[in-house]
Specification:
The complex is a heterodimer of chains A (235) and B (455). With 235 residues, chain A is α/β, with parallel strands linked by helices. Chain A is built from 6 helices and 14 strands. In chain A, the strands form 4 sheets. Chain A has a 6-stranded mixed sheet with strand order 2-1-3-4-14-13, with helices on one face. In chain A, 51% of the residues are buried. Chain B is 33% helix and 21% strand.
Chain lengths: 235, 455
């Protein structure tokens, strides 16, 4: 089995590289493929069980869009035919039509009906509690300088407490076939053993999440805390 | 009139607070700002202003410069206790202003929070802006270093002179249109091979975005590189630290063809950078190399940041590093990893301020190089605080066996799980805002296990 880290030199902010490191600990036998800028992504060759990409800088987004734009139709085809992908933080914004930043607009890959609106000087912070469409309760964090609008896309999760795609929208992230895009940080996989167990199964592995007992213990404490209305979403 | 009352009431607030033994590092500034929103711009200030900013080391560098200039006989005002946002800077300057509207000092040396640049620099108009480095810091406020680079750039006055770290490709790119000098620290023979840090925010050439080649990488993105594709390279330094004597705590700094022996405030690599930064700033301020070296003689790191003691006959070092700041914590982690003997470590990083009302975003701990502690010589790690279960998971991911990691919520519980007989040295790594807890823990450890001198 191959697991791919797309642009590790870019998509690694806010602890997000921890998602891939955790995945490697869950799947010690898997071959980890690091796809750097300029390399052809492994998922386009159809041999990645999961492609991961994490939060990046705004300049990093532009570089990634430029690098991926050479493969636009192929990426769409890969997603349509079931390529499994997890893009966390602002990485999903690459696939949208546009990222607006004040008066400036950065064109996205245009592969999904999604737009992003940056607000870099007033970041959105807080924790997140809410279920995925499969009913798995997620505990995670948000720290971002952009919102997304994607009304025609299925959400990844629904917020019970915490921020969704944008103010007033309880839908969080997007799902497109086996593509998951989510703003949730944590890292998401280390903080949510039940979700990770489901992801591993969907990837065709019967492995359990690494350090499952400890991950569950930490998750249970978080779940309890985030469910407590006296605990504010943000400080 | 408004300015007069802002100064008057600000000074009265300061006087009252100090009467009751309070530090008065912010409140006078809050009062003055409330009365006169442009008080910082309009209030009397010393003729010379040096601003010090950057992610790590700015308090130390501010104190070094301020103490060195004081040693030259100048009257210096400084926010030496780290109150570095707008109200803290106003409070510091209020202490210096007379009611007749005069500044008492010759020089202000002001630590400036990066995210306060736009409020501070246009009002202060500093002649020198000294930048230590730019790393990942609180993701809540600072996003990422490139964002902070651009944020500072937007605030730097055109007529300032920047004193920049040539070994930091992000910080050295601040405000390219503004006059600047660079400092750099040569690789020393004794320095170990750079660790493979999780965080390295300069992997691509800033000019052509192709992979760079490191000629020397000290840690994270600190070092010197060149781009084989376009020829871009780290800037040449005007002030170059060429040789360190760790026994004598001295270093040779070359500037404009002259080599001078400088004192160091401490032997840790980040403190060597702090001494170099201060020396470069002092020379750029106008001191001769020898005057700068003489003025730094005897100036040491503020005690609260580095505490030495003993517990159960073993040396204990308490090292402060900002929580939420994965690079600062990684530096301390490396310091522990490189120390000889078997080590036990207490971690006091959970943000209790955040925990008062909410729950801390712990994603930053996944950027800390805890992997450096996977070796057998780190015999016990005690994670203390409300996020201890998360910390334990992170430490296990780093390859530290679960049996060596204790997760406890309080310092009292930490005492009960600590096994001094297993270690030769003890470390307490603590956040800026956990100093009281650190002091309590050290006192409790000494009470229970004795504080006789180190073996």
């Amino acid at each position: 089995m191959k697991i791919e880290y797309l642009y590790p030199e870019l998509g690694n902010l806010f602890g997000d590289s921890g998602n891939f490191r955790y995945l490697r600990l869950c799947l010690p036998q898997a071959q980890a493929v690091m796809t750097h800028l300029g390399d052809k992504p492994a998922f386009l060759k159809g041999d990645a069980a999961l492609t991961y990409c994490g939060s990046m800088t705004e300049d990093g987004q532009s570089l990634a869009i430029r690098a991926l734009s050479a493969y636009g139709p192929d990426i769409r085809k890969a997603i349509d035919t079931g390529a499994r992908m997890l893009f966390t933080g602002n990485a999903m914004e690459l696939f949208g039509t546009a990222i607006t930043d004040g008066d400036r607009t950065v064109a996205g890959l245009g592969l999904m009906p999604l737009t992003a609106q940056r607000h870099l000087d007033s970041r959105t912070n807080g924790f997140f509690l809410g279920p995925t469409a499969d009913g798995i309760m997620l505990t995670a964090f948000t720290s971002r300088g952009s919102d997304i609008t994607a009304d025609d896309m299925a959400p990844f999760a629904t917020s019970q407490r915490g921020y969704g795609r944008h103010p007033g929208d309880s839908r969080e992230g997007v799902v497109d076939h086996n593509f998951i895009g989510t703003n949730l940080l944590g890292p998401l996989l280390a903080l949510n053993p039940d979700f990770t167990a489901g992801l591993l199964k969907a990837m065709g592995s019967d492995a359990a999440p690494a350090f499952l007992d400890q991950a569950r213990q930490a998750y249970a404490l978080r779940l309890n805390e985030f469910s407590n209305p006296k605990v504010a979403i943000d400080e | 009139m408004r300015l007069f009352f802002a100064i008057l009431l600000g000074k009265m607030t300061r006087g009252l607070l100090r009467l009751f033994g309070r530090s008065a590092t912010q409140a006078p500034g809050v009062v003055a700002l409330k009365i006169c929103p442009d008080v910082l711009q309009r209030m009397p200030k010393p003729a010379k202003i040096i601003a010090v900013t950057g992610t790590n080391g700015k308090t130390t560098v501010t104190n070094l410069i301020a103490e060195a200039l004081t040693a030259t006989g100048r009257k210096v005002i400084s926010n030496s206790r780290g109150a570095n946002i707008q109200t803290g800077v106003i409070a510091a300057l209020l202490a210096d202003v007379t009611l007749t509207g005069r500044s008492r000092s010759d020089v202000a040396v002001l630590e400036c929070d990066e995210r306060s640049s736009r409020l501070l620099y246009p009002a202060l108009r500093p002649q020198l802006i000294v930048v230590t480095n730019l790393f990942r810091d609180s993701l809540r406020r600072n996003a990422h270093p490139e964002y902070i680079r651009d944020f500072i750039t937007s605030a730097v006055p055109e007529d300032a002179v920047l004193v920049l770290n040539a070994d930091d490709a992000i910080a050295s790119a601040i405000a390219p249109q503004v006059k600047r000098v660079y400092y750099s620290f040569d690789k020393q023979d004794y320095e170990p091979q750079a660790w493979d840090n999780i965080v390295n925010d300069v992997r691509l050439c800033p000019s052509c975005h192709q992979p760079i080649v490191w000629d020397m990488r000290r840690y994270h993105h600190i070092g010197r590189f060149h781009c084989p594709h376009c020829g871009y390279q780290s800037p040449e330094a005007d002030y170059r630290l060429t040789k360190v004597d760790r026994n004598l705590l001295t270093a040779v700094i070359e500037c404009h063809g002259t080599a001078v022996n400088f004192p160091l405030c401490d032997g840790a690599v980040y403190n060597i950078y702090d001494s170099l930064t201060a020396a470069a700033a002092l020379m750029e301020f106008g001191l001769t190399p020898q005057q700068a070296a003489d003025s730094l003689q005897g100036v040491r790191v503020v005690a609260s940041r580095l505490v030495h003691g003993a517990v159960a006959g073993r040396p204990l070092d308490a090292i402060m590093a900002k929580g939420f700041n994965s690079v600062a914590v990684s530096r301390s982690v490396q310091q522990v990893a490189e120390a000889p003997g078997r080590k036990a470590v207490f971690l006091l990083f959970d943000d209790l301020f955040c925990e008062k009302t909410s729950s801390e975003n712990i994603s930053w701990i996944y950027d800390v190089d805890y992997e450096q502690w996977a070796a057998d010589d780190v015999v016990q790690v005690v994670a203390i605080g409300p996020r201890c279960a998360d910390s334990k998971l992170r430490l296990m991911m780093a390859g530290i066996p679960a049996g060596r990691i204790m997760a406890v919520r309080t310092t009292q519980q930490a005492l009960n799980v600590f096994e001094p007989q297993r270690c030769d040295r003890i470390y307490v790594l603590f956040d800026l805002y956990r100093q009281t807890d650190m002091e309590r823990l050290v006192a409790q450890l000494q009470q229970r296990y004795g504080q006789e001198a180190a073996r």
